[in-house]
Amino acid sequence: MSFDINAIRKDFPVLQRQVYNRPLVYLDNGATTQKPLPVINCVNDYHVLKNSSIHRGIHFLSEQATEDYENARKTVQQFIHAAHPHEIIFTPGTTASINGVAFSFGEKYVNEGDEIIVTEMEHHANIVPWQMLCERKKALLRVIPFSDSGLLRTEELDSLITPRTRLIAVIHVSNTLGTLNPVEEIIRKAHAFNIPVLVDGAQSIQHIPIDVQKMDCDFFVFSGHKVYGPTGTGVLYGKEKWLEELPPFQGGGDMVDIVTFAKTTYNVLPFKFEAGTPNYIGAIALAEALRYVSSLGLDSIADHEHQLLEYGSEKLNKLGFITLYGTARPKSSIISFLVNGVHPYDAGMVMDKMGIAVRTGTHCAQPVMQHYGIGGTIRASLALYNTAGEIDAFIEAVKKVKTMFG
Ligand code: PMP
Q: Is 301's C-beta closer than 6 angstroms to any atom of ligand 1?
């Protein structure tokens, strides 16, 4: 299928909107992506005609919802090339997935004096749950640093890995710098010492084809709302071996086999990790989003976004009054920068009034800001529906910021 940007944009009703009497230029896709009609219609149809709780009913609607939900699991499995559908656990999002692993893995495998490794460019969602675990267990958090251009210094791993290292958690694509990290290399090094690796795919799932078997990660997590699906949906992929071994992180209905006051036994995978009524409509609509992305082709999406990334970065650089953060390659879809001498919040306010939606601040990655000694950046983040014309409008807005404050 050809990548027809005009046709694609018609699938996203919100992109036809105006804000402050100007066409909306939505460049806050790193925070959340807009939804195409198949996803919107799926959620709507479910509420209008199909709603029924899954797994517990024997009536028509419940059986249909159960089948759609389990098919959604298979769609996710195929999308990330997992070996089995039961390796896919539906969660409310990346944050919930990481907290779940940190709790379960921590309960079983982490003891006083053990170590967890993360990177200096993690989102808070891949720092704080590990820190909480370390506090609970009196374990230690170690950090892989990055260079000023935004490259992870993976050579440091050789000294960071010790006999006490229990797990490495790493961001795939940085939500602040855009760097595409060499997770395969990290996983190879870690596995040489039998250390499992969790990959935070919140910023890669929507841009890069994912094959968890080739990558050989032990856990891969992402959020539905960043890949054109509904909010409150997400995935925890875990290798079967780990999911069998780990204890559940939440107790309740559906995740049990036999419950007595003396003892409870747990359900089989994947249900062991899905306590309570899940967001089944969300999961079914997430599968719709993944089908939409697949119909366009992730390679075509990546090509399109890459062209925009290079076009926008070059235009910004040429202005001569910009500092870019995250210049290392390979990178994906994120342009983080400052207009020299201008507070990012002021810049964001002016751009907003021109219809340009960007994000300003620390992007939930304060250690990245601490690395550069800055309070925050302006972040333009791209999606499959953005255009070169939108980049031009964005550049005009940056120029306006400079004339107003510079
Ligand atoms: N990790 C990364 C890299 C992210 O970009 C985000 C969202 N900004 C998260 C984790 C957290 O995702 P969510 O808020 O959807 O749980």
A: no
